[in-house]
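Support request, please re-run this one:
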Amino acid sequence: MLLLPSYKLDLKNRHRVYFDLLIISVVIIILTVIHYTTYHYTMNYHIMLQFAYYLPVIYAAMRFGLVGGIISGLSITFLILPFMTYFNTMTMASSAMLTQWVEIVLINGIGWLTGFLIEQERKATRKHQLALQIQKELVEKLKRESLERERLESEIRQTERLTALGHLSAGLAHEIRNPLGIMKVSIQLLAQDKQEDSEVLEYCRVLKEECERLNRLVSEFLSFARPKELVRRRVKLEKLLEEGVMFIQPALRQHQIELFQKGGQVDAYEVEVDSDQIKQVILNILLNAIDAQGEGGRILLERIQKEGFVGFAVSDEGQGISPDVLPYIYDPFFTTKEKGTGLGLSVVHRILDQHDGKISVSNRNGRGARVEILLPRCEEGP
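Re-run finished. Output below.
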């Protein structure tokens, strides 16, 4: 009988192994019994019968490797040895005895050689599979590194654009603001003098609105080009969110929009930030959602947290953002709004960079867009 080799067998293959062992053992025993019960047959019969031993030996070697070939060959040798040394001495010539011994040696040699070759094939297969696995891991690693490199290059280009724009904006904004103030005052004086002329008053109103719009644009230029130094302090993000929600209530009522809030564990964590600038981020994101929403519907404000970060996400039910537009939404002056300046998300991106925060914008599965803001949360303690 063959012994179970020391392979790590799982439950699924164990029954197959037992079955193979049983078949090999039964075939060897049957062939051996035939030898012993037909000892009086001719020499050629027994030599031909010994050829049948090759089948279980080769199968054992193919199934269990070198161990299977060795054990099966030795088992046959020990089982047939009494027959060869006792019965054949009485019935066979010395040449026939030598032939049977040669057959026994060949049976063992074939079993060992087959087992050895099977082991080498299995080793080569394992090495090949390992090489394929390593190759697959390297390909995945290269893909990740390629994506990370593209992201870093994109951030570098964004930084370069922002730096160039900052230098341009600072000088341009100061040059525009002074004559703009004079124009606004002149328009107000003209409107006071022409109270009885409705046409002139309408022109003055339009000019005044345009001056105010230009003034807002210049202010955003200055805020973007020359950000003030951060004044960091520890504060609960929940408090900043509550203040932001309070400020946008008039805009929500004006557009008949409902604001739904989804709580989380945000109120349990503090962030070390410049409160004024983070309030600007919160208001900018919420006002963008209101603009995208239009009239009616609802906006969802969620408190979120991830490993080492805490923040919020704003989802609207607007038209969403075109995939062609998404790569450019942080670029200065890029806007899809008729009266937008294109600096809102650029300023938000810069503020979050200064705070080591993150921003991500994506389209929702149904309708609208989702903006996620994350800030590093403070460790526990004072």
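The two ends are 75 Å apart (CA to CA). The beta strands are 233-236, 258-262, 270-273, 298-306, 309-315, 358-363, 369-376.
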